[in-house]
Design a protein that fits this description.
The protein is 40% helix and 16% strand. With 331 residues, the protein is α/β, with parallel strands linked by helices. It binds nicotinamide-adenine-dinucleotide (NAD).
């Protein structure tokens, strides 16, 4: 069971987690159910998420799964009825996906987001906490990244995530909708999908090591990221839900404040796995930034966010989870 990050009893509140069948969303669902939320509604069209991430929690009668699309405005209205807090995670992630298909990314991430925001406003939810992204920093060279200094977007995906922030800001000032954006920095952990063309780097590396295959490192491997273990992202969401009113209408970096190169992350995984399979270097990718590191002072001050799991421990827990899954499938 995850550590407790709230002090109010959850049994008086109904939550909606969009994208709850996905990686981050399913951990939010798990936390809310384990801590006794009155109801947890999940809206997900299973585009990149999995039914099994929900059926895991079927023993909780307070869970209610809706197979639906955020591009449908009436679905968004329906699922927001009676909801106290929205945790909006549904989106099409991945920079390369957005480069290959900017229109679908735009429809889901912008039109879908707007549908959810309108529904949250109309149904008078108490707070709308949404997944923003470190990709909003774009070509800004400043390190560490502070929320108020952003550059030009480097991909269609980055545009969509920035537009989300702009819409949330305008809804807050125009309609008084209480919104909080969380700019996630490379979140990783159990249940992150290791398969497909758009998989994230950590599950890809882990899966390769488990299968004794060499993973690809794009570029020289010296690019750095502020890798964030999932439990820290859950903490940020729960603290955002219950943060004081002054925390509204802002976006916050959600990271650890540690800078790790891809190469060194892979070396840690080699140690954790006990395997010396080497990586293969290939060309760098379009739309990728060279370095990323967050300043998490604002989230600490306004949300009381305090990341508890650093990368080494996070990689160990994640590897163990993937390894156990593999044993389970074999058995
Ligand atoms: N994982 C990261 O490092 C990271 C970093 C920055 C931002 N984010 C954002 O966090 C959120 C969650 O990301 P994730 O890593 O869990 O990805 P994920 O792909 O595992 O989860 C996204 C979920 O949204 C669902 N979804 C997609 N389109 C939908 C639609 N039209 N209607 C309803 N549901 C839909 C998918 O089926 C999936 O379950 C996304 O908004 C993503 O952009 C993630």
């Amino acid at each position: 069971m995850m550590q407790k990050f709230h002090s109010e009893p959850l049994n008086q509140y109904r939550f909606l987690v969009t994208g709850g069948a996905g990686f981050i969303g399913s951990h939010l669902v798990e936390y809310l159910l384990q801590h006794g939320a009155k109801e947890v509604v999940v809206l997900d069209n299973l585009a990149t998420g999995f039914k099994k991430n929900i059926t895991l929690f079927n023993s909780y009668p307070s869970l209610n799964f809706v197979d639906g699309d955020i591009r449908d405005a009436s679905t968004c209205q329906k699922v927001c009825e009676g909801i106290d807090f929205v945790l909006h995670q549904a989106a099409l992630g991945s920079v390369p996906r957005s480069i290959n298909d900017p229109q679908t990314t735009n429809e889901v991430n912008i039109s879908g987001f707007l549908n959810m925001l309108v529904a949250a406003r109309d149904q008078k939810v108490k707070r709308f906490v949404y997944a923003a992204s470190s990709s909003t920093y774009g070509d800004s060279m400043e390190l560490p990244k502070r929320e108020e200094v952003i550059g030009k977007p480097l991909s269609p995906y980055a545009i969509t995530k920035y537009v989300n922030e702009l819409y949330a800001g305008v809804f807050a000032s125009t309609y008084g909708t209480n919104c909080i954006g969380l700019r996630y920095f490379n979140v990783f952990g159990p249940r992150q999908d290791p398969k497909g063309a758009y998989a994230a780097v950590i599950p890809l590396f882990i899966q390769s090591l488990i299968e004794n295959r060499s993973p690809f490192i794009n570029g020289d491997g010296l690019q750095t990221r502020d890798f964030t273990y999932i439990e820290n992202a859950v903490q940020a969401n729960i603290k955002a839900v219950f943060a004081r009113p002054e925390a509204n209408s802002k976006v916050y970096n959600v990271a650890v404040g540690d800078r790790t190169s891809l190469k060194s992350m892979f070396e840690t995984l080699q140690k954790v796995s006990g395997k010396q399979v080497p990586a293969i270097h290939r060309e760098g990718r379009a739309g990728d930034i060279k370095d990323s590191l967050a300043d998490i002072t604002l989230a600490a001050q306004m949300l009381g966010y305090e990341p508890g799991v650093r990368i080494g421990e996070g990689l160990k827990r994640t590897f163990e989870w993937f390894f156990d899954q593999q044993q389970f499938i074999k058995a």
